[in-house]
Design goal:
Layout lengths: L44 E5 L4 H12 L3 E6 L3 H13 L4 E5 L5 H15 L4 E4 L15 H22 L8 E5 L12 H21 L5 E7 L6 H5 L2 H5 L14 H11 L10 E4 L7
Parallel strand pairs: 1-2, 1-4, 2-3, 4-5, 5-6, 6-7
């Protein structure tokens, strides 16, 4: 039977950035009760940024249940990160927590060094963490806000990838979180949408650059997904009706994206590189 997921309108709610899972209503579904692994990533070593909550938590849970050990990179949401760690350990896999700000190149290099030291290598890199903020007018976007969005969303992706590739063997994979905003930019998310277009282009070029090393690079482009980013970065009236614009008339749950990230990480997807997988609830990508 098809699972029923929550539809708007949602209760009034707002949080300070970056938001926490516990304060969301309804609580996001990360696949805790539904995702069943089958050993597709057995023995793999994964780095996942923004892994404390939302899409990152769902991907971390799925990777662990598929047999991977995971480094959980996150900013400062320690309670959420601990919950994610428990999910990994309950699956019988190793979890390593690394808090800190990925806008800084040195921290990105520390993440990779920690994965090599504590997990024994890097087979999978999921560049998922992102910053977004809503603005109704161009003049409301400060220089600092513009630069922060690029440092977190695209510069960090470059730093992490550059640091990880020397440790990645043939058959490894890089998966970047883009967005439907890459093709259909929301004007109130101008900085965020611009970086997501850059991510899609970065992924396509990276796939060609790394092909001779046997390393694949792909992207997942989510539509509206119910994560702490939403009540912490959007006005309450938009949160209440978030996802109504999708053909399915609701936001996706983080659990509904996990299988795309598993497929792209699976060694059996060995000829899939340079692709963008849209997970948009029926919303077309251009």
């Amino acid at each position: 039977m098809l699972q029923e997921f929550p539809k708007p309108p949602f209760p009034d709610q707002q949080q300070p950035m970056p938001g926490t899972t516990a304060r969301m209503s309804p609580r996001p579904d990360h696949g805790e009760g539904s995702y069943k692994g089958s050993g597709r990533l057995l023995g793999k070593k994964a780095i996942i940024t923004g892994a404390d909550s939302g899409i990152g938590r769902a991907v971390t849970l799925a990777y662990a249940r598929e047999g991977a050990d995971v480094l959980i990179s996150y900013l400062n949401e320690h309670e959420d990160a601990d919950d994610t760690r428990r999910l990994v350990e309950d699956a019988g896999r190793k979890a390593v927590l690394v808090p800190g700000d990925i806008q800084h190149a040195e921290h990105c290099r520390k993440i990779v060094e920690t994965a090599v030291a504590e997990l024994g290598g890097v087979d999978l890199l999921v560049n998922n963490a992102a910053h977004q903020a809503s603005f109704k007018a161009l003049e409301e976007i400060s220089d600092e806000e513009w630069e922060l969005t690029f440092r977190v969303n695209i510069h960090a992706m470059f730093y992490l990838t550059k640091a990880a590739v020397p440790h990645m063997k043939p058959g490894s994979a890089i998966i970047n979180t883009a967005s439907i905003n890459a093709d259909k930019p929301n004007p109130t998310l101008l900085a965020y949408a611009t970086t997501k277009g850059a991510i899609q282009n970065f992924t396509a070029g990276l796939a060609q650059l790394l092909a001779d090393k046997g390393i694949r690079a792909n992207a997942v482009a989510p539509g509206p997904i119910w994560t702490p980013l939403i009540p912490s970065t959007m006005p309450a009236e938009k949160v209440a009706h978030f996802g109504e614009q999708a053909p399915m008339k609701r936001p996706g749950q983080p659990a509904e994206l996990a299988t795309a990230y598993v497929m792209l990480a699976d060694p059996l997807s060995s000829y899939v590189s340079g692709a963008t997988i849209a997970v948009t609830g029926g919303g077309p990508m251009l």
